[in-house]
Amino acid sequence: EAGVAQSPRYKIIEKRQSVAFWCNPISGHATLYWYQQILGQGPKLLIQFQNNGVVDDSQLPKDRFSAERLKGVDSTLKIQPAKLEDSAVYLCASSPNSGRAYNEQFFGPGTRLTVL
Amino acid sequence: GENVEQHPSTLSVQEGDSAVIKCTYSDSASNYFPWYKQELGKGPQLIIDIRSNVGEKKDQRIAVTLNKTAKHFSLHITETQPEDSAVYFCAASRIYGQNFVFGPGTRLSVLP
């Protein structure tokens, strides 16, 4: 079974520029999560989708961050404009919502963003 | 909201020794406590979890204990091996599998 795919793996941008990250969850997984992991800290949930609907975006800085999950499959997270404090690893995870591990979260390798 | 603390932040043990990582949480309504292992350049991977109706769970060399009264839970790794070296995160949530609040992580180094 293929895991959660993310791209790009690394991105370096100047502050005030825009950036987008892409995530393809495990096939059939209904729930998709985006996390921000700042160096030396645990992941922090930004947004959770159930199919193509938003379940929780309470910690998403909506003035600059946006995310979508068209057709309930892959997802894109965008930052516009980026700030220095956005430098972090952005992790995507998915859950099957059925079967034995129905709510276990499977994480992708992450995208490391550096804002200069 | 929920706050999860984790200690120690770094831990070095000799190969074959045991390692213990402790977490405390603040929200008494939390009822699901997973532990994740994160290797360099990879995403976190679930290694064991426990629900609030269970006090202890074991899977080979890994065990987790939960004290709901004191609001703390611990990860125990016995007979450590070099491949156990990684960053370990605890988390807590009110809803199984959702809305995780992660601890800050423990960097475990197993010395050969």
Structure report:
- The complex is a heterodimer of chains A (116) and B (112).
- Chain A is an all-beta fold and 116 residues long.
- Helix content of chain A is 0%, strand content 47%.
- Chain A contains no helices and eleven strands.
- In chain A, strand 5 and strand 6 form a beta hairpin.
- The radius of gyration of chain A is 14 Å and the shape is globular.
- The model of chain A has no long low-confidence stretch (mean pLDDT 92).
- Chain B is mainly β and 112 residues long.
- Chain B is built from no helices and eleven strands.
- In chain B, the strands form two sheets. In chain B, strands 2, 4, 5, 9, 10 and 11 form a six-stranded mixed β-sheet that branches. Chain B has a five-stranded antiparallel β-sheet with strand order 1-3-8-7-6, with no helix packed on it.
- The chains are: A mainly beta (116), B mainly beta (112).
- At the A-B interface, strand 5 and strand 9 of A face strand 5 of B.
List the helices and strands and how they pair.
The complex is a heterodimer of chains A (116) and B (112).
Chain A: E1 5-7, E2 10-13, E3 19-24, E4 31-37, E5 44-50, E6 53-56, E7 65-68, E8 75-79, E9 88-95, E10 106-107, E11 111-115
Parallel strand pairs in A: 2-11
Antiparallel strand pairs in A: 1-3, 3-8, 4-5, 4-9, 5-6, 7-8, 9-10, 9-11
Chain B: E1 4-7, E2 10-14, E3 19-25, E4 32-38, E5 45-51, E6 56-59, E7 62-67, E8 72-77, E9 86-92, E10 101-102, E11 106-111
Parallel strand pairs in B: 2-11
Antiparallel strand pairs in B: 1-3, 3-8, 4-5, 4-9, 6-7, 7-8, 9-10, 9-11
Q: What low-confidence regions of chain A span 5 or more consecutive residues with pLDDT below 50?
A: none
Radius of gyration of chain A: 14 Å
Largest sheet of chain A: 7 strands, mixed
Query: How much of the sequence of chain A is in beta strands?
Result: over 45%
- Record field, number of beta strands of chain B: 11
Broad shape of chain B: globular
* SSE order of chain B, one letter for each helix or strand: EEEEEEEEEEE
Shape of chain A: globular
Can you count the beta strands of chain A? 11
Poorly predicted parts of chain B: none
Q: Kindly report the greatest chain-chain contact and the residue count on each side.
A: A-B, 22 and 21 residues
Structural category of chain B: mainly beta
Give the helix proportion of chain B (percent range).
under 10%
**Multimeric organization:** heterodimer
Radius of gyration of chain B: 13 Å
The helix/strand class of chain A is: mainly beta
Mind summarizing the main beta sheet of chain B? 6 strands, mixed
Strand content of chain B: over 45%
N→C terminal distance of chain B: 41 Å
The arrangement of helices and strands of chain A along the chain is EEEEEEEEEEE
